[in-house]
What we know:
Radius of gyration: 47 Å
Number of helices: 4
Number of strands: 23
Distance between the termini: 34 Å
Largest sheet: 6 strands, antiparallel
Helix content: 25-40%
Number of domains: 3
Order of helices and strands: HHEEEEEEEEHHEEEEEEEEEEEEEEE
Shape: elongated
CATH topology of the largest domain: Elongation Factor Tu (Ef-tu), domain 3
CATH architecture of the largest domain: Beta Barrel
Strand order of the largest sheet: 2-17-21-20-19-18
CATH class of the largest domain: Mainly Beta
Amino acid sequence: MKWRAINxxxxxxxxxxMTIVGGCGHKEAEKRVVPVRVAAVELNVASTEARYxxxxxxxxxxxxAFKVGxxxxxxxxxxxxxxxxxxxxxxxxxSVGTVLARVRQSDYQVKFKQAEYQxxxxxxxxxxxxxxxxxxxxxxxxxxxxxxxxxxxxxxxKFDFDRAENLFASKSMTKADxxxxxxxxxxxxxxxxxxxxxxxxxxxxxxxxxxNIDVVKAKSQSAQAVVQETQIPLHDTExxxxxxxxxxxxSIEKGTLVSSGDKAFVVADTSSVKAVxxxxxxxxxxxxxxxxxxxxxxxxPGKEFQGQITSVxxxxxxxxxxxxxxxxxxxxxxxxxxxxxxxxxxGTKQQISPQPxxxxxxxxxxxxxxxxxxxxxxxxxxGRQLARFRDVKLGESFGNAVxxxxxxxxxxxxxxxxxxxxxDGDQVKVIP
Length: 432
């Protein structure tokens, strides 16, 4: 587990070298000159602690942009060092919900007022429709009463007419009385028909008035939706802070013409901050969630902060094969600021004997020992710079470097870039 990262680098390098050896002739290898980068082996006083550099980032950082366009006509005011009020600027502290800027509202207010007026007109139409419906319902009740009265008169007239027919047939009634009874019967029958027709007409009017209420209500809902639609951009003319924090960037001034989506501010919560650094997989065992780390900054000599590991990325970075570790640091006094460089210390300050140290990316798999490791050094031979493989015995790892217990001495130059392109004895050119 400890040397998994070195194994991966070393095996990849060895396989690539074997491919080159198998595909190229020895003479061709002697002719080519491979560009490489090197690092001098340094004799460091190593310790059991590892130090990493990281850049401070806010716990939360947000870009604020306008949702609507227009001229900026107001900025939040803050008291300056001279005691006078001024426009908000970088470094000012803000609270959640604070209105930082506002674009001119007049255009949006006009549209909103128009929508409100139209909605009010439609709402008054509902009252009119309801009154018409209530009047129609009352007319239906009145016409039905008249129908009932007409039907009662009709029943009596029909009874009298039937009696008159019998009497007239038996010559017990005069022709004049018979004609009067018949006329009364026909008149009441016509009144019943007219009353029924009147009921149908007024009922149709009531049904139409009721349907019109639903239509006007639907129009009112649409008009209210328009009011809400015009109210949203009116509210969006104000740009509010979503958090308690500090202004990191300001991109506008009073009078600036902005469009929807234009960035106005960058705000951040720095009550606690984060530092992210990369470690090799052999160091992951020391990076446990919740572990405490010491954090220092050159800008504050002697000041030490306490951080806590809050996240270890599950996959290595594809470029440098390092695992990112995130440390959260309490920052109640706001001393640690975004983009400040800090160093983090993992382990103790116990010192061990001096020994050569090389970068991790200089280590490859040994060609002569399947379980061993090697480096490629650059030597001067006959005026030429040649690559030579050298087996080494590795010691402890320290951050992005590893100690070499045997096989190297101070001043040796090891290849850190381009090693996969050379064979033992190849001529190389050291580039910056």
